[in-house]
Amino acid sequence: MITQTELKEQFMYDPNVGLFMRYKDGWVFDKPDERGYIRIKIDGVRYRAHRLVFLWMTGEMPKNVDHINGIKTDNTWDNLRECTQSENCRNRKVNEHFTTSDIKNVTWNNTTKNWQVQIVEDGKTYYYGQYYYKHIAELVAIGARVKHHGEFARI
Fold first, then answer.
1. Rounded to two decimals, what is the model's pTM?
2. List of the chain residues with pLDDT < 70
C-alpha cells in the first residue's frame, strides 16, 4: 500500500480539476476500468484514483468513497466524500436490471396496473403506495429517498 509521502513524491494532484500529474510524464489520463473508475498504476499496483485523492488530501486511504454527483470519473475533491458501503449504495443511479421503470424505487405493478413506490433501508422494505401517474410516483420516491437516505439520497 502506497503512503501519502510516496504518492506526493511521484504525483501532483489538482483538487479543482480532479486529475493527477506524474512529475516525470505529465497529466494522467487513464481510461475508465470496467466499472467506470479511473485507475492509476503505481509501482505495479493499480489504485482507484478517487481513493488516491483521499490519501493525497488527508493522509488516509478510506475503504469507501462516494462520488457525490454520481460521475465515477469526476475526482475533484469537492465531489468526493468518505462513506460506508451502505451510504455509497444509497447514492447509486437506478439499476435498469432491477426495475420496470427508469426511476429509482419505482416499479410497475402488473396486477394493479399502477406505479409502486418502495425503498429498502437496512434490510427493511418500506412501501409508499401505488400511483396511477408515473410522475407522481417519482415525486413520492424522491421524498422517500430524502427521508431514508439523507445527504446520500439520489434525487
1. 0.77
2. 95-99
